């Protein structure tokens, strides 16, 4: 039985076996080959401005589909896909969802580097330079016309402008916001404050916070983030509110290490440590303050109105309990928003399908996200002032529909609506700058003996470094 | 326990020592139960509290409210079955690759001793010294575009499986173990004309069961515990591991639902552990990493 | 010292270094056979070697290259020491090293010593060992992210269980994760709770292998409890202790998920920013792979020095 020949085959097969395993391992990884069907630009109709031919068969991957945690929005998404498929039966919308934030800056950076974004991907307005650096988004100027997006002319040019570079359009907006002061009406009443007159200056905020914190039971008067880039985001909002800047006009130098910066920092530090009105738990990031205010543990914080939808839907909060005033200080308010971009290199037909879907879902008055009657029926808040990027006739129609279906008491937003504050765009390299400023926030809010001058000086050095690195 | 330990039986036999022993024993059992079961109790019970109670200061030791719907909601929101399936798929795939490729390599280095074998082993052991996080950037770039074959492994299990093979510690353990198998045993088999593969299969592997157990546990636990790497290489939510899935959930749901989700996510492996604890424990200890 | 010997189940096999094949070089005439032997051997090796080449060695080389490169809108250029200068200019640089050192010291005190003490204690008990072992190992089985988030909840200064416990004991409440002086310790405590089970079980196995006569002999010499530990227990488990020390240091350097989730990574005033977290931050927050690689390279050089010392020491004892 053990002949020499047998031995040889066995040995050879051993070699073959092990190397085969490895080779298969490496060769079989074909599931996502690096080129994603680039080059097949403009299949079907060659005219980019022509709307999508309903007969075209394409599959679109898209992120930021509502997750199961947003049951109502997910239901609406599915209805919208079905509705959309009546016109375009051959377009398959393949949504991806994540229960947390759709976009986390570090993962987003990695995704762009890997070019692993889906065909249609969600970004913040501030992400455009980074996306273009990574050659990630298609120029859709030719695809977006009044034929493919009929209401194009009524979209606020400032909003569209933040999606353009060198005159080319790279995205379509889903929502925009300006920051204000979100208040918990119940706690305001409990503390003997008037919920219809939220504080308008930072001194008033401080006084109100002190009163609310006086209720005890672990209730904080005013809350702030200090981690996950959101600390820096809010520090920026506070700087803007007192008329300051974070990055100077040249876009190359930090501009917060000055009297205004110190004023903002001192105010926060005093509220946290002298008044003890900001709660003990810090290092919070997006999502945490919403949880606190939804459980009546927090009196107020800086927020965009669309936070209310999130709290109602995911945290089980009651929308009547919230109200909003303009940002304290009111010199400027941070304005931002989010949008979808389309991956560079996908086929012309896919781009057309993507534009058609985004138009239907996000840019049609009375449909998709602006179908207010349905929003009301699904128990989501209607009557929140934002997102609202419409002008002209569309604005009139849309505003009327909001009022007609309003579930939010309009009075709760009256001070916010009646006192508009000039919006100010986020700084260049926003996410990087925010990351650095997180440390300023966490320093102020966690260290009783924080050295404000040193915190700001350190952050200044780091921000300058970030801005210098292109 | 019949083996003689630090404290002599004679000493223990004294009445005072006996009392002391009992007291210490009670203290240790009580303390350990508190330290290790306490947090688990806290997790399970907090999952039943309503949104208000779960963030009450001071906290309540026994839930005053009863909200089992947290668990239903957590289950709906989390999609545990997909996450768990993904994680096990990655873990056992990684285990299979490690068992085949690393055992073959260790066997070769230990018994077949090719030229450059020592250099190769040295090259492998060097990687032990490098924190994974340091290499995460170049490794990530490599996975995006694997040299020579030019594949992007992102969102595929290969991104987990193949890097798992580069576990120098397992190779090292296996090789040390194989080294201690008497050469005469293998030589006799080779005289009989058995091929190296046959020797590996019918002589080496059966003896090596304990160490294979240890290496297997390390392999599975390695994937089970990993967070940063799967977070980067499996961005598609439907392909995520349990760890990354829970992390995504953490900002999106109220505290009580999140805690209920943590409980649900912990149950399957705790059950597996309780059922197989004998095997797992003996796998870890009988491997006898003895001084 | 030698690396741990894992005694095969055929117990009693004496431990000795394997015969050196190099000593018996084959005669020249058997070249062909030798070649075939080598081919077979490399055939067994190839799978692992390819994986190492692609996923370890190549990235190591690339790490070095990246440290001296810069990528600007798709264009990669050589920039010499610029990345290194960026890293050294960063105010967080020295803080990160200080934090890493602090973390390592704490992780060694808690993560290395505690499981050993626990194993020694458990080993003394004549009953309940199974239960205690089970308890200690339980946390290892939880998904780490679940454990970390659970700890975040336990640590909360308001509604957290730990402060409630302190109140119950009439001790001052702590800010745990929010206090720059305490945050690192809190991270290490959580990490130790989660991970000590594996080490404790391994120590326990090692302790059970110590021959009882050694203790008896020590007692005859009049040794007390601590001298017995010092002169018998520790020397007898020294091999496994030093191996676990090495593993603990490596694990310490890798730690990511605990600070990332407990303190948002950077921590209060950057007090949990470790070198490894700084690398992550450069790469994935600042999109600056060059700086990440430069800092990584510094850490590599340091660790290489460290491991050279380690290898030298272990070889010295091996001989």
Biggest protein-protein interface? B-C, 119 and 125 residues
State the separation between the terminal residues of chain B, measured CA to CA.
20 Å
The overall average pLDDT of chain A, rounded, is: 87
Number of helical runs of chain A? Answer: 17
Q: Radius of gyration of chain A, rounded?
A: 26 Å
Mean pLDDT of chain B: 87
Outline the biggest β-sheet of chain A: 4 strands, mixed
Give the CATH architecture of the largest domain in chain A: 3-Layer(aba) Sandwich
Q: Helical percent range of chain B? A: over 70%
Largest sheet of chain B: none
**Gyration radius over CA of chain B:** 25 Å
Q: Per CATH, what is the topology of the largest domain in chain A? A: D-Maltodextrin-Binding Protein, domain 2
CATH topology of the largest domain in chain B: MetI-like fold
Order of helical and strand elements of chain A: HEHEHEHHEEEEHHEHHHEHEEHHHHEHH
Structural class of chain B: mainly alpha
Oligomer: heterotrimer
Query: What is the CATH architecture assignment of the largest domain in chain B?
Result: Orthogonal Bundle
Task: Provide key terms for this protein.
heterotrimer, B: MetI-like fold, 71% helix, disordered C terminus, C: 319 residues, mainly alpha, MetI-like fold, 2 domains, two-stranded antiparallel sheet, 13 helices, disordered N terminus, signal (chain A)
Describe it for me?
Chain C: Residues 1-27 are annotated as: Disordered. Chain C: Its main location: membrane. The complex is a heterotrimer of chains A (470), B (291) and C (319). With 470 residues, chain A is of the alpha/beta class. Chain A is built from 17 helices and twelve strands. In chain A, the strands form four sheets. In chain A, strands 3, 6, 11 and 12 form a four-stranded mixed β-sheet that branches. In chain A, a hairpin with a 2-residue loop joins strand 4 and strand 5. The longest helix of chain A is centred in the N-terminal third of the chain and has 24 residues, at 4-27. The radius of gyration of chain B is 25 Å and the shape is flat. Chain C has a two-stranded antiparallel ribbon with strand order 2-3. Strand 1 (289-290) of chain B pairs antiparallel with strand 1 (5-6) of chain C, so a sheet runs across the interface.
List the helices and strands and how they pair.
The complex is a heterotrimer of chains A (470), B (291) and C (319).
Chain A: H1 4-27, E1 58-62, H2 71-87, E2 91-95, H3 105-114, E3 120-124, H4 128-133, H5 157-161, E4 164-165, E5 168-169, E6 171-178, E7 180-184, H6 185-190, H7 202-213, E8 220-223, H8 230-241, H9 259-274, H10 288-294, E9 298-303, H11 307-315, E10 322-326, E11 333-342, H12 348-362, H13 372-377, H14 392-405, H15 414-418, E12 423-424, H16 430-446, H17 452-468
Parallel strand pairs in A: 1-2, 8-9, 11-12
Antiparallel strand pairs in A: 3-11, 4-5, 6-11, 7-9, 7-10
Helix pairs in contact in A: 8-16, 9-16, 16-17
Chain B: H1 9-13, H2 15-46, H3 69-78, H4 80-112, H5 117-126, H6 132-144, H7 158-165, H8 168-179, H9 183-191, H10 196-207, H11 209-225, H12 228-233, H13 242-249, H14 255-286, E1 289-290
Chain C: E1 5-6, H1 31-67, E2 69-72, E3 75-78, H2 82-89, H3 92-124, H4 129-137, H5 144-155, H6 161-168, H7 183-208, H8 212-220, H9 225-236, H10 238-254, H11 257-262, H12 275-285, H13 289-318
Antiparallel strand pairs in C: 2-3
């Amino acid at each position: 039985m053990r002949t020499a020949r047998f031995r040889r085959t066995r040995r050879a097969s051993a070699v073959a076996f092990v190397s085969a395993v490895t080779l298969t391992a490496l060769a079989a990884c074909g599931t996502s080959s690096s080129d994603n069907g680039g080059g097949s630009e403009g299949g079907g109709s060659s005219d980019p401005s022509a709307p999508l031919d309903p007969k075209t068969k394409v599959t679109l991957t898209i992120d930021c589909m509502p997750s199961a945690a947003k049951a109502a929005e997910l239901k609406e998404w599915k209805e919208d896909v079905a509705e959309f498929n009546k016109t375009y039966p051959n377009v398959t919308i393949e949504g991806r969802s994540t229960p947390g934030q759709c976009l986390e800056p570090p993962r987003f950076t990695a995704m762009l580097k890997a070019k692993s974004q889906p065909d249609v991907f969600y970004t913040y307005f501030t992400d455009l330079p980074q996306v273009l650096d990574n050659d990630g988004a298609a120029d859709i100027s030719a695809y977006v016309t009044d034929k493919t997006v009929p209401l194009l002319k009524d979209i606020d040019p400032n909003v569209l402008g933040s999606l353009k570079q060198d005159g080319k359009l790279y995205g379509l907006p889903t929502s925009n916001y300006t920051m204000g002061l979100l208040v918990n009406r119940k706690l305001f009443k409990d503390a003997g404050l008037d919920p219809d007159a939220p504080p308008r200056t930072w001194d008033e905020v401080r006084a109100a916070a002190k009163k609310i914190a006086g209720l005890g039971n672990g209730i904080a008067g005013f809350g702030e983030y200090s981690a996950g880039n959101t600390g820096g985001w809010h520090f920026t909002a506070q700087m803007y509110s007192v008329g300051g800047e974070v990055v100077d006009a040249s876009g190359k130098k930090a501009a917060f290490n000055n009297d205004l910066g110190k004023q903002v920092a001192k105010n926060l530090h005093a509220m946290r440590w002298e008044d003890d009105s900001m709660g003990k738990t810090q290092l919070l990031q997006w999502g945490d303050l919403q949880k606190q205010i939804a459980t009546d543990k927090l009196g107020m914080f800086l927020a965009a109105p669309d936070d209310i939808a999130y709290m109602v839907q995911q945290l089980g909060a009651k929308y009547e309990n919230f109200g909003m005033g303009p940002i304290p200080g009111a010199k400027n308010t941070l304005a931002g928003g989010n949008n979808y971009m389309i991956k560079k290199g996908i086929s012309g037909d896919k781009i057309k399908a993507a534009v058609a879907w985004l138009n239907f879902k996000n840019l049609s008055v009375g449909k998709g996200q602006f179908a207010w009657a349905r929003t009301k029926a699904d128990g989501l808040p209607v009557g929140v002032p934002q997102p609202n990027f419409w002008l002209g006739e569309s604005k009139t129609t849309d505003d009327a529909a909001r009022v007609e279906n309003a579930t939010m008491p309009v009075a709760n937003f009256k001070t916010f609506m009646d006192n508009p504050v000039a919006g100010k765009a986020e700084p260049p390299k926003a996410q990087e700058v925010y990351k650095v400023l997180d440390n300023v926030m966490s320093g102020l809010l966690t260290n009783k003996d924080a050295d404000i001058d040193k915190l700001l000086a350190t952050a200044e050095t780091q921000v300058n470094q970030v801005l210098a690195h292109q | 326990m019949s083996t003689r330990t630090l404290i002599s039986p004679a000493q223990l036999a004294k009445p005072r020592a006996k009392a002391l022993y009992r007291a210490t024993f009670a203290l240790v059992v009580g303390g350990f139960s508190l330290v290790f079961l306490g947090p688990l109790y806290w997790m399970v019970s907090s999952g039943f509290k309503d949104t208000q109670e779960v963030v009450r200061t001071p906290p309540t030791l026994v839930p005053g409210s009863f909200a089992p719907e947290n668990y239903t909601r957590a289950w709906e929101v989390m999609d545990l079955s997909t996450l768990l399936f993904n994680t096990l798929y990655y873990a056992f795939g990684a285990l299979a690759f490690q068992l085949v490729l690393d055992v073959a390599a260790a066997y070769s280095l230990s018994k077949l001793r090719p030229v450059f074998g020592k250099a190769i082993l040295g090259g492998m052991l060097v990687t032990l010294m490098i924190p994974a996080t340091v290499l995460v950037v170049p490794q990530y770039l490599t996975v995006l575009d694997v040299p020579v074959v030019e594949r992007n492994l992102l969102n595929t299990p290969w991104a987990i499986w193949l890097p798992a093979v580069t576990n120098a510690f397992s190779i090292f353990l296996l090789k040390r173990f194989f080294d201690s198998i008497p050469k005469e045993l293998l030589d006799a088999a080779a005289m009989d004309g058995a091929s190296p593969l046959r020797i590996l299969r019918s002589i080496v592997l059966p003896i090596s069961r304990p160490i294979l157990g240890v290496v297997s546990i390390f392999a599975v636990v390695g994937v089970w515990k990993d967070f940063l790497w799967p977070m980067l290489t499996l961005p598609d939510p439907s392909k995520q591991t349990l760890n990354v899935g829970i992390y995504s959930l953490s900002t999106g749901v109220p505290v009580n639902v999140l805690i209920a989700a943590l409980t649900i996510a912990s149950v399957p492996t705790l059950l597996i552990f309780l059922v197989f604890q004998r095997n797992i424990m003996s796998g870890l200890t009988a491997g006898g990493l003895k001084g | 010292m030698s690396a741990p010997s894992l005694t095969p189940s055929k117990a009693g096999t004496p431990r000795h270094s394997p015969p050196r094949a190099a000593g018996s070089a084959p005669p020249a005439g058997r070249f062909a056979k030798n070649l075939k032997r080598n081919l077979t051997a490399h055939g067994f090796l190839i799978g692992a070697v390819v994986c190492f080449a692609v996923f370890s060695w190549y990235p190591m080389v690339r790490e070095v290259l990246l440290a001296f490169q810069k990528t600007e809108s798709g264009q990669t250029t050589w920039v010499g020491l610029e990345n290194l200068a960026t890293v050294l200019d960063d105010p967080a640089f020295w803080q990160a090293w200080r934090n890493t050192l602090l973390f390592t010291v704490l992780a060694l005190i808690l993560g290395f010593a505690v499981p050993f003490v626990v194993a020694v204690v458990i080993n003394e008990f004549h009953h309940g060992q199974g239960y205690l072992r089970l308890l200690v190992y339980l946390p290892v089985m939880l998904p780490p992210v679940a454990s970390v988030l659970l700890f975040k909840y336990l640590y909360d200064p308001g509604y957290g269980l730990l402060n409630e416990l302190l109140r119950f004991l009439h001790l001052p409440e702590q800010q745990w994760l929010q206090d720059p002086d305490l945050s690192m310790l809190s991270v290490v405590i959580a990490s130790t709770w989660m991970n000590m089970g594996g080490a404790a079980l391994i120590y326990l196995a090692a302790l059970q292998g110590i021959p009882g006569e050694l203790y008896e002999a020590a007692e005859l010499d009049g040794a007390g409890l601590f001298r017995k530990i010092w002169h018998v227990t520790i020397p007898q488990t020294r091999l496994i202790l030093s191996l676990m020390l090495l593993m603990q240091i490596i694990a310490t350097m890798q730690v990511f998920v605990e600070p990332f989730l407990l303190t948002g990574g950077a921590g209060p005033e950057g007090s949990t920013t470790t070198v490894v977290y700084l690398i992550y931050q450069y790469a994935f927050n600042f999109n600056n792979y060059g700086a990440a690689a430069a800092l990584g390279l510094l850490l590599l050089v340091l660790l290489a020095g460290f491991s050279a010392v380690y290898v030298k020491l272990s070889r010295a004892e091996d001989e």
